[in-house]
Amino acid sequence: MFATILISKTLKNCGQRSTKWGVVMPHHLPHVYTSLLKQPIMGYWELLAPVIGLVCVGSGWSSAYDKKARMQLIGTRALHWAAFLLVMNMILLPSVQTVLNANATGIAVLMLLALGTFTAGVHILSWQICLLGIIMALCVPVAAWIEASALIVALISIAALAIGVVLWWHWHENRAKKT
């Protein structure tokens, strides 16, 4: 559903800024899946790469003035993302999986996706796509830190939730006394 909404927005807006930022949000979901089940979720990445490719085509569409330029844009983006999908799938080869565990595989694929997004932005001269790639690349160490310190993150989250409940209860009690 997310991909359908994003693609339709891309085609309607022809690459306006609102479309590009929708891609940033969902890339943390596979890290949660990988951390819990200890296996990479490649189908998600294989879906996200073409979606970002479509966003790139939509972003560069307005600068492609004739049919030849548009066909070249589509062709170069298709080859670009096909190459990155090939490398992403090579990470899943049994000989590579003996070296990488599930967490390392997920992080490696996110790095490849970030690199692919940044270089796609460079090719179509879109600073927004480049920035999206940089943001995704900066999420790699954050994701690695979260995976390495999941217990600390869970304890901090539980403590913040407990403090929030106590503050809400105190506020609710004070409000009940005033009325």
How would you portray this structure in words?
By secondary structure, the protein is an all-alpha fold. The protein folds into two domains: 2-148; 149-179. The chain contains nine helices and no strands. Helix 1 runs parallel beside helix 4 (42-61) and helix 4 packs antiparallel against helix 5 (67-90).
Helices and strands, with pairings:
Layout: H1 2-13, H2 17-21, H3 29-37, H4 42-61, H5 67-90, H6 94-97, H7 102-123, H8 127-148, H9 150-178
Number of structural domains: 2
Mean pLDDT: 77
**Overall SS class:** mainly alpha
Identify low-pLDDT runs. Answer: 1-25
Number of strands: 0
Helix content: over 70%
Q: Which series of helices and strands comes N to C? A: HHHHHHHHH
**Main pleated sheet:** none
Tell me the distance between the termini: 46 Å
- Described by the principal axes of the CA atoms, the overall outline is flat
Output the radius of gyration. 21 Å
What percentage of amino acids are in beta strands? under 5%
How many distinct helices? 9
Quick structural overview:
The chain has 179 residues and is an all-alpha fold. It has nine helices and no strands. The protein folds into two domains: 147 residues; 31 residues.
Highlighted features:
single chain, 179 residues, mainly alpha, 2 domains, 0% strand, disordered N terminus
